[in-house]
Fold each of these.
Amino acid sequence: MPPKKKSIVPSQATQEVSDEEMDEDDNMGSQSSQALLSDNDRRTLAGHVVNYMLVADCKKVPVKRSEINKGVLKEHSKQFNNVMAEVTRILSKVYGYRVVDLEKGQYILVNNMSPTLRDHDVFPATRSRNDAATMGLVTAILAGIFMSGELMQEGPMREYMKKLRIDIDSKDPHAIFGNVNKLIMQDLVKQCYLSISFDKSTDPPSKEFRWGPRAHVEISKKHMLELVCKIYGDDMRPEQWASQWKVVQREAAESAGTS
């Protein structure tokens, strides 16, 4: 009696398709089905994707590749790279935005104009007073993290917020920011301004706050350090913050190497 054949179940790793493989499939699909998508159709689809991304940018939420395929491209998802090339061109030429692929197929829009350092933040112009206030808080949080060695533990973060007269644990909504705990722990993480991990060496594990991928793309650490010096006054210079200045120099060198 012949031995039974073992059923082979693909592992999760073999079932998952990497972004690189998806790109290869898209390139092959774009080449094989180019005739199926006219220039006019491509521009129309690109316009829909542009609108989709502009709406998402108002909420400061990254757009996922899968969302674009499912919600906009649909049966033309194989044309993703082809359409996104036109999307990138439109957003740059018409709206002045740069499309940035953060990680894992998540896209955000960044203003092509260099951010102007103002008295209270390091972000490009915001859309309303509430937006400006929120961005001011985000700037304060990111500045605190940067000046703490690019990582801030949960305890120091709570104390830092109290110095700003903000109680993260308060059940009463803040007059300007509403539910501050949700804003910091959820919204800013979802918007990729903050990255939160857990220090498992403590009991119980405590949160660790770092800059999120959007913050790294949108904000110059040099501008952030200049802002801190401006707050301190007394002719404080960026070079006087030794460790932070090293980070600024490293960022400048990396930027020069990729330009």
Amino acid sequence: MFSNIGPVQLLIVLVIVLAIFGTKRLRTLGSDLGSAVKGFRSAVSDAEETTEQLSDASKKDADFDNTPVEETRKDS
């Protein structure tokens, strides 16, 4: 997809973006984007931890003694 883009084209795009937004606006956008990525990673980590805890709990619930139970039925 981007294999045909060279360093000169990237430099031209960077100059155009700087002209449109300005350096202060780009700095603000960069910090906002960084905060969003950090929050996303934190949420994914929390979700994985919760999933792991639920998985461990279900394994404990499923753990049982596999020995046969003697029948206590009496014929009357």
